[in-house]
Amino acid sequence: MSLNMDDTLESTSAVKPDLVTSPTKGNVATPVKVNPWKRWRWRIMWMAILILFPLVMGGNKEWLSVAVFGLIASIGAIGLNVLTGYTGQASLGHGFFLGVGAYTAAVLGGPVNSGTELWGLGWSFLLWVPLAGLVAGVIGFAVGPLALRLHGLYLALATVGLVFIGLHLFSNLKSVTGGEPGRQFPGLVIGNADLATGGSIGPITLNRDQVYYFVVALVLVGVIVFVNNVMKRRIGRAFRAVRDREIAAELLGINLAKTKVTAFVFSSALTGMAGALYGSYLRYTEPNLWNMTLSIQYTAMIIIGGMASVSGAILGAMILTALPQIIDLTTGSNPWQVNLFPFVTNEVGTHGLTTSLFNQMLYAMFLAFFLLFEPQGCMGLYRRLVNKVKNRSPGKG
Amino acid sequence: MTTLLQLLIGGLALGAIYSLIALGFTIIFQAGIMNFAQGSFMLVGAYMVSYLALTLGWNFFIALLMAIVATVVIGVAFDRYILTRMGSRPVFTVIMVTISLEIFLKAVVQAMAGTDIRNNGDPWGKSGFTLGELRFNTNDLLAITISLVLLAIFFAFFKFSKQGIAMRAVALDYEAAAAVGINIPKVNAITWGISVGVTTIAGVFLAGFPRTLDPAMGDSALKALPAVVLGGLGSTTGAVIGGIVIGLAEVLVAGYGEQVNKVIPIGSGAQQVAPYVVLLIVLLVRPHGLFGKKGVERV
Fold it and tell me: What is the pLDDT of residue A56?
């Protein structure tokens, strides 16, 4: 009967969870003994999907690149979730840290003598991915004091300011960013070998997208393990204590300043790594990319996926990245040329409700829907579902 | 000296518009909401006026009135059907809901009007007069005059009318206001109506400034945020003064940017970023702004 008691406990604590301030049920360690095989079963399944997906989808370039962008966005969304979801510090400015990471990568990995004024050191990506994280982390450390002085609304406003100041810097630091016309980002190069053009490992030949997929997936798995472990340790618990009640956390002996700045540094470092990979996979971009819209997208990812949850961040990143592709698919770009939404035009360069505008609308509606009805995002929906199933058949779950 | 005076006129005109936008933010903040969708209301209003007045050839003021009616209806409906459901959710949640409205409205405007830059021609042409070496544009003068008139009307309303007093009561203490019988949903609806109306007027004038209209104009509403913070969140006087300071800062940096650039490298286009530098400095030095009240934190 102990299981039943747990269930009632869980369902009472699941009442009215709120964004940012209230504890998430998923983080509360459940006293139920978890069958280790059960946990590994899921992990092995996800691993298998992760590895098999690009091999099966090898020929389908669109979906493969959606997957790569989704994995990159997952890293950034997990980074933002460390700050907003776990520590409760609002940020509308993570596009800035993505940009910092991308340009660090561009300088460290760029061509040495390009014949232009652009800086480049020509290092391998094994160096520039972690270093992009490091530089973004250092900048996060410099910006961190903002979070010490400011709460909620004021912090959100400050991060808005950060994005615009970032945009100005990006378009003016010409030797780093190439100025308004933009610059090329380095590919995945080690020594003389350019992995990004594709290559073969044993009998398997991989194309560019597949190579990126596996490199990004590797980084993502590392990030997941890292964040999951951090959240189980003292500092991770301090993050959540600060989110739930700042003053109470201070009374418990948590160093508020240190905790908040640490959260900022972790978050911006992870986001910086995502930015480095994003720039590299895009190949080329203008400084205007790292604007408010991008920052808001990342915040939307963790709201739609689930606050304070690694799986939620990944889910949200995947949903928002795949949305344009799904819309393309349902508005005529399918084998049957069927348009399920007749009010959406799929012709390029026309007026009216184009697919990209339809994407914006759907994305706004998703965002509003989850904020209104399920602040815990898709993970909240999932947990509710699991609870329902468990309650229906007690003793089996 | 002439350059300086000319810049000051331009700065005042732009500042007057920012004051109106900042006032829009501040009024809604009285209802406890930071509305990031103000920019999209400006867009909807400006596009409606542009369409009605230029394409259909209506009288400018009737077109303006129609635009205000349309945006106020959207704003009040949004408050009634979506925001009231938010209850006492954290600030950031409410901000994100208004951002989703912003994205949605922007998409609607682009779907209906296209994404190309629309030539606005502005209703007064390039009319204006010259006094000595100074040039006065009708649009600038009108922006300043209408802003002043609107501000006077608003302050009178806010200070003396029953609804204005009710608004202040709700802003001061939500529960006490409800306890003395103030109809809070009604007051909130009025607050939204006024705020959105003011913002729409600001948007129409802003569209007359570069004399073109494109969807990116919605972002300039965000430039009023530094004005709001500088004046102090929730302070209407602060919003006006903050708006003028930000407008002057932007125009002066634009005018003297090249000379400054020779001494300190601030880069090109620094006028776009000047307001945000002010924002960060104010937030670090004096987060409650010039006229805002220092919040007392309850445990």
Answer: 82
Distances in Å between the alpha carbon of A126 and those of A131, A199, A275, A276, B4?
9, 17, 15, 12, 54
Asked if residue B258 belongs to a domain, the reply is: yes
Task: Give B69-78 pLDDT, tens digit per residue.
Answer: 999 999 999 9
Cβ of residue A257 closer than 8 Å to a chain B Cβ: no
- Which residue out of B82, B96, B272, B298 would a mutagenesis test of the A interface target, given it has the greatest number of A Cβ atoms within 10 Å? B96
- Radius of gyration (Cα) for chain B, nearest Å? 19
Stretches where chain A sits below pLDDT 70 are: 1-34, 114-115, 190-204, 346-351, 393-397
Kind and range of the H or E run holding A199: strand A199-201
Per-residue pLDDT reduced to its tens digit, A54-112: 888 777 788 888 999 999 999 999 999 999 999 999 889 899 999 999 999 999 888 77
**CA quadruple A194, A195, A197, A200: dihedral, nearest 10:** 120
Structure tokens at B108: 């609607």
Q: Which secondary-structure segment (H or E) carries A193?
A: strand A193-194
Q: In chain A, whose CA is at the least distance from the CA of B281?
A: A158
CATH number of the structural domain spanning residue B121 = 1.10.3470
Domain A10-392 is of which CATH architecture? Orthogonal Bundle (1.10)
Tokens standing for residue A267: 């978050």
Quote the domain boundaries for residue B201: 2-285
CA-nearest of B29, B25, B63, B26 to B46 is B63
Interface residue A39 vs chain B (CB under 8 A): no
